[in-house]
């Protein structure tokens, strides 16, 4: 019989146990070992680390058990200590507060928008790396005291749960999530009614959303939920599932996230007295509409669209996570137009001003599509990729927005991702380190903030070496690694048994699972989403060779694989099925397994238990790839293509580089063949022999030394604390300062100046370049010689203060392209001549030998521009300019 009404019955805790409520509803428990152990002690049988959820645990405790705990003096003492520790964590000064006290000009608040957040398995609002990164960003910000407000959507079905059919085909399940059973609280107005956010839709309809609060340590995470009674059925389903539905559905989700998210932030600040954010961080293009909402807010204050745009841009940071255009959301311009303006949302903001922000105006772009990443870049004065290599790929990919500039000058920087060590480091690893430096210092080190007792010069945010690890003995490290491997074996067998039961196998068929994996065999892990570029099945390229590696008589390996294909990606599902069918083979199924339903709970066992973490994407399509970072923090070595973060931090002491054929003129099939052969050879000739090579004490001495080096030298680099400090110092602080500088009058002046410069730029040109002194006329000059240059510039009605004139010089290739360019300013040397040209002069001193060349360019110049490339305007000489196009230096 089906119930006609559903509601949640909450437990009533005895007075001595009331602090458990606050501990359960602040997600700090998900990375604070002592708090988790407190909940485990409340019900050891009901608490499993992989599925841990204190809210559910408290709801399942019997009245008798609650009474028993309320009378347990030892338990109440631990509860009091945990409660006091949380209070100190929430209220005490941390790194950010210390920086402000020392005089740093930092923003009073930052709003961080993301379409997904992976904070804990108990709050399944993530699909993969983007969400896990966002969750780690919030947690690291909390540990450092950064005044962040997170903003996202609450998906009633989350992403999806994955199972396998008997034939190994991925099947999706969407369990309904009840917010009342999650670690969430409804944001309410002062009178107790739920706070509401409302968006106007075409046809006079409205989209209503309530706001749920997740407490991520010190950081509030606001999640908008459209499943409210005020909505019609179609609007109720806007937040039904993550990355589901067609274009109309996705557009509404992204409008709610961006526009509704800003309104939710305003509501939160009004209700709590939290300072309004000075900086808005758009994590990927999905939340890009937040900039339009902030423009709408400013127009009634007397600013026109262009001036409001300048204010918004100054205080916005945009992070791109995709290295391929196909990963970007693009909508039909007509669809976008229907949802905005007087008939839809953002009344008062002209649609004809909105649409150009997302238009692909570059060669090869599709002008009838509205590109969310393009809008994100145009609405943000500061933008970044998520690794050094990804920054370079992004500058190339979006270079069409800055025509006339070399990709290296495109104003997209990079901040390499990091991972939140307290979340991902196994308790056993933490205890081993804490035994060397003490528990308090170990917590500080993992959080990535300043460590008590460090000299001031070491408290500036540079990654610290974890030198204390060098004092841990080889036997201790090896015993730890075997223990973690053994835990993984147990976890794999449990999950594999459950998977086969769901696939229809009977108990009598599954006795073989007791022999799956071996805690003494080299264990390789591979787990991630399953788009084609990540090449889940590259390891299957030569199946006979893989079987030989798995079953090697003296150097065997075993592999644990996990991953989800997008529900609409049948190609990805076929890759999963291919891997599953290979792993089902009775000849190798004890050495290779596929675990369905990859998520945070599984990952927290998988990373520590593996000896080697495998990553073999098509380079350079992996933006960062943080799974290998999480593995490294637990002493796991990386075996990876030089892509993402591994490209900049690879070192032979940390693992192995899989050679790539990305620079070769080979087709995809040939490339896979070459790179899979390289992978097999590495495992057979270098990885496995090193693992099994035992020294005099029976230990793999060289392997252990690599584990130690990974922890000591790589560990500090991959911390989310390091990443968040970089965002604060390199992006948030400059954005806040730029925003403060744009008072209304200044914003109007800047917008008017930009309009004047754009209108006049057709008349700006480099009319003549000559060498006044220096022996370059013959096509050569001596190293160290100084060339005096004279240039005549037409400014098209602009003034010299409106521009900067530069010499760009460096080595040249056979096509006269300048590489490793350096720039040198030229100064005005006289007024206008009769032809309305301005004279500029300056020296050029070549600092290298060989083929050398220079050119001259004119750029807009204004004190409030973040970079000289910001407007995307540049004037260069024509081929008929005269002297000075290129000079050969010897």
UniProtKB/TrEMBL annotation:
Gene3D superfamilies: Glycogen Phosphorylase B (3.40.50.2000). GO terms for molecular function: glycogen phosphorylase activity; pyridoxal phosphate binding. Pfam families: DUF3417, Phosphorylase. Signal peptide: none annotated. Its EC number is 2.4.1.1. Residues 13-123 form the DUF3417 domain. The modification N6-(pyridoxal phosphate)lysine is found at residue 630. It is an enzyme of class 2 (transferase). It catalyses: [(1->4)-alpha-D-glucosyl](n) + phosphate = [(1->4)-alpha-D-glucosyl](n-1) + alpha-D-glucose 1-phosphate. SUPFAM superfamilies: UDP-Glycosyltransferase/glycogen phosphorylase (SSF53756). The keyword Methyltransferase does not apply. GO terms for biological process: carbohydrate metabolic process. Its cofactor is pyridoxal 5'-phosphate. Keywords: Allosteric enzyme, Carbohydrate metabolism, Glycosyltransferase, Pyridoxal phosphate, Transferase. Phosphorylase is an important allosteric enzyme in carbohydrate metabolism. Enzymes from different sources differ in their regulatory mechanisms and in their natural substrates. However, all known phosphorylases share catalytic and structural properties. Belongs to the glycogen phosphorylase family. This is glycogen phosphorylase.
């Amino acid at each position: 019989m089906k119930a006609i009404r559903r509601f949640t019955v909450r437990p009533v805790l005895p007075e001595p146990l009331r602090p458990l409520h606050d501990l359960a509803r602040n997600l700090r428990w998900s990375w604070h070992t002592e708090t988790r152990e407190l909940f485990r002690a409340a019900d050891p049988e009901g608490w499993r680390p992989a599925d841990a959820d204190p809210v559910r645990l408290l709801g399942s405790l019997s009245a008798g058990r609650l009474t028993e705990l309320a009378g347990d003096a030892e338990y109440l003492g631990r509860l009091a200590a945990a409660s006091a520790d949380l209070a100190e964590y929430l209220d005490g000064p941390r790194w950010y507060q210390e920086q402000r006290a020392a005089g740093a000009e930092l923003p009073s608040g930052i709003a961080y928008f993301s379409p997904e957040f992976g904070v804990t398995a108990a709050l399944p609002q993530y699909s993969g790396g983007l969400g896990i990164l966002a969750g780690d960003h919030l947690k690291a910000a909390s540990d450092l005291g950064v005044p962040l407000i997170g903003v996202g959507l609450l998906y009633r079905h989350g992403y999806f749960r994955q199972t396998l059919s008997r034939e190994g085909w991925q099947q999706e399940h969407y369990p309904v999530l009840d917010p009342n059973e999650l670690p969430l609280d409804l944001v309410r107005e002062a009178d107790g009614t739920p706070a509401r956010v409302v968006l106007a839709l075409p046809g006079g309809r409205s989209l209503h959303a309530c706001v749920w609060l997740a407490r991520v340590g010190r950081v509030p995470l606001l999640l908008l939920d459209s499943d409210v009674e005020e909505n019609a059925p179609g609007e109720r389903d806007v937040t039904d599932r993550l990355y589901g539905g067609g274009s109309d559905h996705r557009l509404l989700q992204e409008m709610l996230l961006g526009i509704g998210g800003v309104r939710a932030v305003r509501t939160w600040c009004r209700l709590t007295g939290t300072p309004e954010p000075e900086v808005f961080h758009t994590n990927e293009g999905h939340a890009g509409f937040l900039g339009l909402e902030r423009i709408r807010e400013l127009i009634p204050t007397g600013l026109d669209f262009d001036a409001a745009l300048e204010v918004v841009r100054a205080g916005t940071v945009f992070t791109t996570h995709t290295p391929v255009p196909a990963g970007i959301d693009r909508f039909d311009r007509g669809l976008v137009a229907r949802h905005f303006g007087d008939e839809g949302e953002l009344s008062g903001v002209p649609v004809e001003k909105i649409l150009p922000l997302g238009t692909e105006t570059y060669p090869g772009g599709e002008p009838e599509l509205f590109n969310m990443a393009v809008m994100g870049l145009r609405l943000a004065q500061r933008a970044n990729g998520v690794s050094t290599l990804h920054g370079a790929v992004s500058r190339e990919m979006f270079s069409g927005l800055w025509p006339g500039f070399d990709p290296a000058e495109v104003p997209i920087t990079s901040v390499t991702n990091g991972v939140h060590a307290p979340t991902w480091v196994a308790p056993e690893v933490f205890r081993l380190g804490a035994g060397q430096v003490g528990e308090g210092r170990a917590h500080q080190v993992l959080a990535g903030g300043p460590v008590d007792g460090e000299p001031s010069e070491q408290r500036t945010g540079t990654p610290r070496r974890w030198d204390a690890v060098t004092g841990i003995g080889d036997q201790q490290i090896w015993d730890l690694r075997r223990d973690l491997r053994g835990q993984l074996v147990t976890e794999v067998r449990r999950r594999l048994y459950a998977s086969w039961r769901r696939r229809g196998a009977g108990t009598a068929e599954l006795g073989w699972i007791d022999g799956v994996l071996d805690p003494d065999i080299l264990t390789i892990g591979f787990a991630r989403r399953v788009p084609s570029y990540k090449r889940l099945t590259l390891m299957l390229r030569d199946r006979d060779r893989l079987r030989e590696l798995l079953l090697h008589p003296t150097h065997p390996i075993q592999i644990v694989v996990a991953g989800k294909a997008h529900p609409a990606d049948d190609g990805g599902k076929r890759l999963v099925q291919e891997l599953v069918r290979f792993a089902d083979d009775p000849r190798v199924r004890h050495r290779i397994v596929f675990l369905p339903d990859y998520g945070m709970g599984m990952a927290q066992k998988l990373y520590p238990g593996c000896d080697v973490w495998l990553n073999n994407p098509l380079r350079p399509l992996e933006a960062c790839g943080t799974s290998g970072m999480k593995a490294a923090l637990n002493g796991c070595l990386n075996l990876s293509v030089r892509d993402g973060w591994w490209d900049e931090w690879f070192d032979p002491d940390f693992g192995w580089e899989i050679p790539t054929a990305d620079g070769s003129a080979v087709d995809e099939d040939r490339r896979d063949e070459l790179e899979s052969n390289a992978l097999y050879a590495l495992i057979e000739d270098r990885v496995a022999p090193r693992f099994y090579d035992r020294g005099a004490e029976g230990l793999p001495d060289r392997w252990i030394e690599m584990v130690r080096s990974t922890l000591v030298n790589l560990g500090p680099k991959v911390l989310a604390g390091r990443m968040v400090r970089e965002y604060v110092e390199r992006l948030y602080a400059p954005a806040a300062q730029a925003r403060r500088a744009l008072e209304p009058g200044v914003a109007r002046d800047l917008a008017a100046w930009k309009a004047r410069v754009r209108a006049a730029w057709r008349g700006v040109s480099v009319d003549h370049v000559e060498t006044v002194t220096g022996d370059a006329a013959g096509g050569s000059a001596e190293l160290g010689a100084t060339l005096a240059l004279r240039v005549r510039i037409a400014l098209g009605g602009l003034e010299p203060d409106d521009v900067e004139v530069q010499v760009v010089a460096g080595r040249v290739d056979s096509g006269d392209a300048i590489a490793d360019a350096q720039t040198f300013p030229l100064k005005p040397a006289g007024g206008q001549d009769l032809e309305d040209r301005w004279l500029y002069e300056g020296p050029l001193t070549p600092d290298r030998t060989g083929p050398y060349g220079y050119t001259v360019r004119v750029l807009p110049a204004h004190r409030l521009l973040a970079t000289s490339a910001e407007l995307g305007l540049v004037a260069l000489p024509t081929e008929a300019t005269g002297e000075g196009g290129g000079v050969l230096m010897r």
